Amino acid sequence: MSFFNKIIVAIVQLMPKAIVGIFSRRYIAGETLGEAVQLVKTLNNKGIFATIDVLGESVKTKEEALEAKRKALEVLNIIDKSKLKANLSIKPTQMGLSIDEDFTFQQVSELVEKAKEINNFVRIDMEDSPYTDRTFNLYKKLRENYDNLGVVIQAYMKRTFDDAVLLNKLGANYRLCKGIYVEPPSIAYKDKQAVRDNYLKVLEIILKAGNYVGIATHDEYLINAAKKMIADLNISKDRFEFQMLLGVREDLRDKINADGYKIRIYVPFGKDWYPYSIRRLKENPQIAGYIFKSIFLMK
To answer: Is residue 94 part of a domain?
Structure first.
């Protein structure tokens, strides 16, 4: 994190919640499912796909996890009812992974089964390193019975290439991102170019294995390198998509879309928007620059 971004992050955390909310609107659909639906419709009208996430994670009780599952089912139902070009993203800890792994398996099974009934898809997000193995185990167990689900791998983790080698054998559907959680250098690359190099190394083995991948990044270096790799390997456009966060690099989003590539936007919503906003700032401080511009340039 640059010194400038450190200062901006510190300032934003000191601001009243209402002020933070003004500048978070760009990155969050709103507090309600209705607001998320309207935003997704706007994206769909531009030919852009979405993945919808109900904000909230690390629940402390099974009751909270059950409520999170109920809200996720609401998302799947409204996607079907409104004929949205969208799928569902979930956090494993939101479904109870830190409480009971068998319970979580049942929770997520219900969501994936519902998604299967409506010809849809569930993306299991990746969280920080204490949950990496547990998340992969959950995915592998679900994969025995379902193929309408995917997992996330993070290029800054040193283990990721080996994980992809194993997951490729399952025909995994991936979201490949750089990674946003703060991890120790013993398990995560800290150098920007090292992360980029590993990202492309992992992307190559996924594409060569013929597995579907969401190329999730705002880094033009990686996007351009991915396009070249796709062309060099003669990869069909139905084997990949680009993915980005809501409100970040919309100019690049629109260019990717205009160039004829499929692109999907991560659309979070919910009453837990504030901790998400602050955490996103800490873990992905580049966004601090966008907030700075919003505050001082009113963009």
So the answer is: yes
CA distance 201 to 185: 19
pLDDT in tens, 124-165: 999 999 999 999 999 999 999 999 999 999 999 999 999 999
For residue 16, report the phi and psi dihedrals to the nearest 5 degrees: -60, 150
| Of 174, 158, 242, 168, nearest in space to 205 by CA | 168
Could you tell me the pTM of the whole model? 0.91
Q: Which amino acid is at 30?
A: G
The total number of structural domains in the chain stands at 1
Residues involved in catalysis: 125, 175
Residue 233 backbone phi and psi in degrees, to 5: -90, -5
Q: Count CB atoms within 10 A of the CB of residue 75.
A: 26
Domain extent at residue 60: 29-269
Return the H-helix or E-strand segment holding 199.
helix 192-209
